[in-house]
Structure formats: structure tokens, C-alpha cells
Design a protein that fits this description.
The protein is 29% helix and 47% strand. It contains three helices and six strands.
Length: 108
């Protein structure tokens, strides 16, 4: 799962929206309490990536990964962009097919 996280960070940091989307299941969900919205399916996740990564020129740096079980991780990231600087936690749930099924994001 660490490779999946590293691939997500790398594609998001280069604003490769298509590459990032390929890491998500078609019915994946990103629930980001810091923006007060839920993004459903690849169409919703595309909006999320374009708005909050591309739109804010966001660069992420991995700080830590806590493995909860075979399919769940808590990932701590340093986010920098046009919005400033934030530290956040992404609770990432992968599916058995190796794709991301859900991210619960909480940025401090």
C-alpha cells in the first residue's frame, strides 16, 4: 500500500490528474471535512484534484504512514500551495483490487 500512496503523491504533485484518477476505483469517495464536501466517483475526484491540487498549486510531502491493516492506512502529509501551509491526515482505504476506495481527509 505504501507504493499506492507514493504514486498518489507523485501524480498529484505533478498535476497528472489522469494518472491520479487511475489509482482510484470507479466508485471511490473522497470526504474532505476541511472543505466541507464529499467527492464521489472518478468524476467527483477529478473535480477535487483540479480544484484543490491543480487550482491551488499544491505540493504534498509524505511525513508518515501508519498501517492499520492490509487495506487501511493513516497518512500524514505536509501540504504547501497558494493557500499557504497545512499538515493533514488522509485515512486511505484500499480495495482488494489494489485501488483506492476511500479517502477521509482532515487538514489542520
Amino acid at each position: 500500500m505504501q507504493k499506492l500512496v507514493e504514486s498518489f503523491i507523485a501524480t498529484a504533485n505533478t498535476f497528472d490528474v489522469e494518472g491520479a484518477l487511475s489509482l482510484f476505483s470507479p466508485d471511490a469517495v473522497i470526504d474532505d471535512v476541511s472543505v466541507g464536501d464529499v467527492f464521489v466517483g472518478r468524476a467527483g475526484i477529478r473535480i477535487y484534484l483540479q480544484r484543490f491540487f491543480v487550482g491551488y498549486n499544491t505540493a504534498s510531502r509524505l511525513l508518515s504512514i501508519e498501517t492499520l491493516d492490509d487495506f487501511n492506512l493513516d497518512v500524514r502529509l505536509d501540504f504547501r500551495g497558494d493557500f499557504g501551509h497545512e499538515i493533514g491526515i488522509l485515512k486511505i482505504a484500499a480495495r482488494s483490487d489494489g485501488l483506492i476506495g476511500r479517502i477521509d481527509a482532515d487538514l489542520a
